[in-house]
Design goal:
By secondary structure, the chain is of the alpha+beta class. It has 7 helices and 8 strands. A 5-stranded antiparallel beta sheet has the order 2-1-5-4-3, with helices on both faces. It has a 3-stranded antiparallel beta sheet with strand order 6-7-8. The chain is elongated, with a radius of gyration of 23 Å.
Length: 181
């Protein structure tokens, strides 16, 4: 019953698990992990090479470097990277894991989870595009905007700095804004 609950939670979170035996090179993925990589359950070849061939070529080097860094420092692994599905489409994944070490301090196993972050990455791109359009609209209209953060800091749009004599490199507080306006 607990395994069913775990599987349900992983599916709901669009996550999968992995277990990499560093002594043999064998990698085990959960069926959910395979689906996150565009594979049918049971079709992953179970090797590092099979994993590496699906990682986007620009991300594989930095991913491997982060694994090596985490092994050397005994820190948990966390890295976002792109995955190329068999159909050629590109998706994003966030991998998190931890290493197990033997008595001689050699890494022998890495276990962890991966999560599909493709939708979040797409939303971030749209947000940046909308912010850019908003800045252009403010510049065209000759107006500016600002927003207050919970800590009292005020964030001004680029156009506000053009309209009012305030240095860009100084964080503004509410009291400073009131004095300037």
């Amino acid at each position: 019953e607990s395994e069913q609950r775990l599987r349900l939670a992983l599916d709901a979170a669009r996550m999968g698990t992995f277990d990499w035996d560093l002594t043999t090179g064998h990698v085990t993925w959960s069926p959910g992990h395979e689906r996150l990589w565009g594979l049918e359950p049971g079709t992953f070849a179970g090797t590092y090479e099979a994993f590496a061939e699906r990682v986007h070529h620009d991300d594989l080097g930095p991913l491997n470097a982060e694994v090596e860094r985490c092994v050397a420092t005994h820190e948990p692994f966390e890295r976002e990277f792109r995955v190329v599905w068999p159909d050629g489409s590109v998706h994003w994944a966030l991998g998190r894991g931890e290493f197990l070490f033997d008595g001689t301090d050699s890494a022998i196993r890495m276990r962890g989870v991966v999560q599909d972050t493709t939708a979040r990455k797409a939303a971030e791109v749209l947000l940046r595009e909308n912010e850019h359009r908003f800045e252009e609209a403010q510049r065209d209209a000759g107006i500016g905007s600002w927003r207050y953060l919970a800590d009292g800091t005020v964030i001004w749009s680029s156009q506000m700095y053009e309209l009012l004599p305030v240095p860009r490199d100084v964080p503004l507080t509410h009291d400073q804004v009131v004095r300037v306006i």
